[in-house]
C-alpha cells in the first residue's frame, strides 16, 4: 500500500511538471521578448535583415531563445514519456479512482448516488484500506436448502476458491437434504485451509415461521435475520452470501472493507439497483419502507459482536411486527425487514460500492456499476430467470458463470503456502497409505486408484421417495459414464421402482447431463431416481467405487445390482417385491439371480413374457449373456433348467461366476482394487459366497443386455499386456486376502482358480 502511495506521489509530481514547466517557460520567453520595455517580435517577417529593428544583438537573443525553446520541448517530451511509462506499469484496477463512486462513507440510502456517477474503479484511496493478514481466516455464511440450492452453492464456492489467498471458514445454515449433499461433497473434495460447519436450518424455522413470506425462497429466505443467534458467540464478523452469487475477485478484498466501518455501522450493504422500493413499478405498488432505493441483501457484511450488543434480535422483531400489521407479508423475504430496520436506523449501514453486488435482475441499473471487466467484483443472479435475465452484457456474465460451473473442482485443491492447515485425519491417513506404496511397482497406478478420493455430489437432481408400507421395496442400482446416458430413459420405462445411479463425469459433463435430464420428459417425470455424481480423477474407470456409492445411498431394504447396459423385463420391479416375501429375504442370506440375456440388434422388439423370450432365443434373436466370449461368467445359472423352471432353484458358486442379483442392503461392498475392466463383479460374488449367501435363480425373471461400442477400459485390457498382468496380480492378492479373512473355507477359491 505504501508503494502505491509513493507511486501516486511520483505520478502527481510528474503531472505538475508537465503542466507548469511549459507555462513558466513561455512566461520567461514572453518577458524576455521585451527590449527596453517594448516587445520583441518573433515573427519571421519582422526578423528579416532589412527590418529596421534588426540588430546583431537581437539576432543573438533570438537564437538563444530558440535554443532554449528546443531544450524545453525535449524536456517536456521526456517527462511525457516517463509519465506514460508510469501509467502503463500501474495495475489496471488502480485506474479511475478519483471519480465519484456509488458508495458513500456514511450510508444514507441516497438514491441520487446512482445519478451522480456510480463507478469509480475498484481500489480504495491510498492508506484507507488495511490489508488482510496473509493467513487470516475469512468467515462466510450461506443459507442453503434443497437439491437445487446445493448445486448453486458449489458454483459459488468454486468462484471463491478460484480467487482466494486466505483460509476460509464456511458456516452453512442447511436443511437435512443440503447437509447430506454438501457434507459429503466437502469431505471428498478435501480442499486445504477450508473448514465447514453446519447449522440445522430446520431448528431455526420456529424463529421466523411467524413471518408470512411471498418470496420464492420461502421460509429459508428469512434465516439471515437470526444469524446473530445461530453463529458462534465468539464469531465477531462474517460475510453473508446468497447462493446465486459469483465472485470475480478475491473475497479478502471484501473482508478488508470491515476496516472502513465507523461509529455504529454494523451492516455493509449495496444499494438496491432496481426501482422496487421506490414504489413506482406498477399502479398501487406498495413496497416495504426503505431508505431511498433500499438495500439488497444478497451480499452482507455483518459485525456480529456489535449487533448482539445493540440487541439486533429485538430490533428486527419489533420492526417486523409493526410493519406486518399493515403489509401483512414480506415480498422480498429478509430484505424487506432489513430495509425497514435501516429506514428507522440509517446509522447502522455502511454503503458498499455497487460493484460488490452487481444485481442482474430485470430492469436494474446494474450497468452503471462497471465500466469494464476489471470493475467487476461480485455478480448476483437475483432474478428467478437466473441466466435468462435481460441485461446489456448478459452474455459476458453468463460465460463467466459457466466458466465456474464447468471448472474442474479438483484443480482447486491447492495448498496455501505459508499458512498452517488444521490437522485432517482423513487427509493424513490418505497420505500415509499412499506413502506405503512402491512407486516403482509396475502396478502402482492400479494400487493408487484404490485410495483415490473422488469428489462426490449426491442427489444431483431432485429426489423424492415414499417408503412402501409392506417393507418389500427394491432399488435398481447401476453406474454409468457419459457414453451410456442414452440408456436412462429406457431403463426408467422398464423399471418403475426407485433407482440409484452413480455417474462418473467431469464438471463440464455433469452440466451436460443436467441439461439432458431437464430436457427429458421421461426423466423429469421420475422423482424416485437418485443421481450421484462422482467426479473424474485419474486414468481408470472406478467401477466398484461407483457401485458402492450407488449402493450406499438407497432408501429401500433391498437392491437389484444391475448394469446400465441391461434393460429389465417389464414388470420385474413388482415381481421382485413378491419374490422377496416368497423367499423370506428379510431373514435369510440369499442372493436372488435374475438370468441375463443379450441381443446384437440395436432395435429390438422387447419380449413381454418368458415364452416370447424363449421363442426369440430359439430363433437366434437373443442369446444367453456372453455365451460366445465368457461362458463361465453365467454358466452356473443353468439356462437349460431355467427354460422349464416354474419355481426358484438353488445353484452353487463356481469360478468366475458373476450373475446379477437381488440382495439386502446390508450386503458387502464391492472391492475397490478392481478398476476398469475385469473381475470387478466376480470378486463381489466370491465374497457373497464366502459369507454363505445362497444363490437362488428366479424362474420368471430376465434382463437383456443392449449392444454398444466397446468401452475404453476393455480396449485397454485387450491391447495392453501390462494391464492384464496387473489384473492377474490383483486377483491373486484378493484371493490371499480372502483366505486370511475367511480362513479354511476360502481355500476353495484358490483351488477353483487353479483348476479353471
From TrEMBL:
Record's bilayer topology term: Single-pass type II membrane protein
Main location: Golgi
Subcellular location: Golgi apparatus membrane
Residue numbers spanned by region Disordered: 42-63, 80-109
Ranges annotated as biased composition (Polar residues): 44-58
GO cellular component, one term: Golgi membrane
Record-linked InterPro entries: Glyco_trans_8, Nucleotide-diphossugar_trans, Xyl/GlcA_transferase
Family classification: In the C-terminal section; belongs to the glycosyltransferase 49 family. In the N-terminal section; belongs to the glycosyltransferase 8 family.
Protein name: LARG1 glucuronyltransferase
Entry keyword set: Glycoprotein, Glycosyltransferase, Golgi apparatus, Membrane, Multifunctional enzyme, Signal-anchor, Transferase, Transmembrane, Transmembrane helix
Keyword Transferase carried by entry: yes
UniProt GO molecular function: glucuronosyltransferase activity; xylosyltransferase activity
GO biological-process terms attached to the record: protein O-linked glycosylation via mannose
CDD domains assigned to the protein according to its UniProt record, in alphabetical order: GT8_LARGE_C
Membrane spanning stretches: 12-31
Pathway as given in its UniProt record: Protein modification; protein glycosylation
Catalytic function, reaction form: 3-O-[beta-D-GlcA-(1->3)-beta-D-Xyl-(1->4)-Rib-ol-P-Rib-ol-P-3-beta-D-GalNAc-(1->3)-beta-D-GlcNAc-(1->4)-(O-6-P-alpha-D-Man)]-Thr-[protein] + UDP-alpha-D-xylose = 3-O-[alpha-D-Xyl-(1->3)-beta-D-GlcA-(1->4)-beta-D-Xyl-(1->4)-Rib-ol-P-Rib-ol-P-3-beta-D-GalNAc-(1->3)-beta-D-GlcNAc-(1->4)-(O-6-P-alpha-D-Man)]-Thr-[protein] + UDP + H(+); 3-O-{(1->[3)-alpha-D-Xyl-(1->3)-beta-D-GlcA-(1->](n)-4)-beta-D-Xyl-(1->4)-Rib-ol-P-Rib-ol-P-3-beta-D-GalNAc-(1->3)-beta-D-GlcNAc-(1->4)-O-6-P-alpha-D-Man}-L-Thr-[protein] + UDP-alpha-D-glucuronate = 3-O-{beta-D-GlcA-(1->[3)-alpha-D-Xyl-(1->3)-beta-D-GlcA-(1->](n)-4)-beta-D-Xyl-(1->4)-Rib-ol-P-Rib-ol-P-3-beta-D-GalNAc-(1->3)-beta-D-GlcNAc-(1->4)-O-6-P-alpha-D-Man}-L-Thr-[protein] + UDP + H(+); 3-O-{beta-D-GlcA-(1->[3)-alpha-D-Xyl-(1->3)-beta-D-GlcA-(1->](n)-4)-beta-D-Xyl-(1->4)-Rib-ol-P-Rib-ol-P-3-beta-D-GalNAc-(1->3)-beta-D-GlcNAc-(1->4)-O-6-P-alpha-D-Man}-L-Thr-[protein] + UDP-alpha-D-xylose = 3-O-{(1->[3)-alpha-D-Xyl-(1->3)-beta-D-GlcA-(1->](n+1)-4)-beta-D-Xyl-(1->4)-Rib-ol-P-Rib-ol-P-3-beta-D-GalNAc-(1->3)-beta-D-GlcNAc-(1->4)-O-6-P-alpha-D-Man}-L-Thr-[protein] + UDP + H(+)
Native species: Asarcornis scutulata
Top-level taxonomic group: Eukaryota
